[in-house]
Amino acid sequence: MVLTLSPAVLHRIRLHAAEAYPEECCGLLLGAEGEGGKEIRDVARMGNAREESRTRRFLISPEDYARGEALAAAQGLGVMGFYHSHPDHPARPSQFDLEHAWPWCSYVIASVENRVPTAVKSWVLKEDRSGFDEEIIESLEPVASPRVRAGGA
Amino acid sequence: MATRVLIPTPLRAYTEKKDALLLEGNTVGELLAALTTAYVPLKRHLYDDAGALRSFVNVYVNDEDIRYLQKEETRVTEADTVSIIPSIAGGRS
């Protein structure tokens, strides 16, 4: 399957990842499902509800999820999946990601190294929950990296 | 007696795209059993291998989390609405 993201959406995910560094960021992917895959038209930033281990874990509370889904529906969109960042870590799902994954959803992971966004990849849980399949990200045009200073403040 | 159960987006691929179902049962557990009997592949995503609801699956009766009621033994009537609402968790390690 293909996940279509506009360059503006991709930029917003990478910017959020850079801003949240060294903590993990998270949010909802809002869009619609087409014949070839999901098309993401917007993202909704979510607060990381974790109180500890925020540099390696994130949590979107059910209350925030429900508010996000209602917001999406009001725009005629649906929750197609989620994004989060992996600070100083590759953009591939961890065992913890696997244990907590919902089916069907796209899980976009943005790697950010020393506050500089790097790889962005998308993953979908296998039906038997044994792992993830990588999803091709199609962006409509090339996108520049967000202009975030390396090395932190 | 049928109770309305709201299905979140991630699970609608299993429920013929329906966002709400009328299911028979006197308790939340019975409603969820009816749901996973009607849509068998849902079971592994809602329950772990030990048969417990997964930690990131939240079930509400009206606005009350069943963890603060009688969990899956919480009784329901046709006047109630049951919602399955995801928590989304993950992280690099």
Question: What tags apply to this protein structure?
Answer:
heterodimer; A: 153 residues; alpha/beta; 7-stranded mixed barrel; globular; B: 93 residues; alpha+beta; Ubiquitin-like (UB roll); 5-stranded mixed beta sheet; 2 helices; 6 strands
Describe this structure in words.
The complex is a heterodimer of chains A (about 150) and B (about 90). Chain A is α/β, with parallel strands linked by helices and about 150 residues long. Chain A contains three helices and eight strands; from the N terminus they run E-H-E-E-E-H-E-H-E-E-E. In chain A, helix 3 (about 95-100) links the parallel strand 5 and strand 6. The mean pLDDT of chain A is about 90. Chain B has a single domain (about 1-85), classed as Ubiquitin-like (UB roll), CATH 3.10.20. Chain B has helices at about 30-40, 45, and strands at about 1-5, 20-25, 55-60, 65, 80-85, 90. In chain B, strands 2-1-5-3-4 form a five-stranded mixed beta sheet, with helices on one face. In chain B, strand 3 (about 55-60) and strand 4 form a beta hairpin. The termini of chain B are far apart. The mean pLDDT of chain B is about 95. Classes of the chains: A alpha/beta (about 150), B alpha+beta (about 90). The interface of A and B includes residues 66 and 97 of A. Strand 4 (about 60) of chain A pairs antiparallel with strand 6 of chain B.
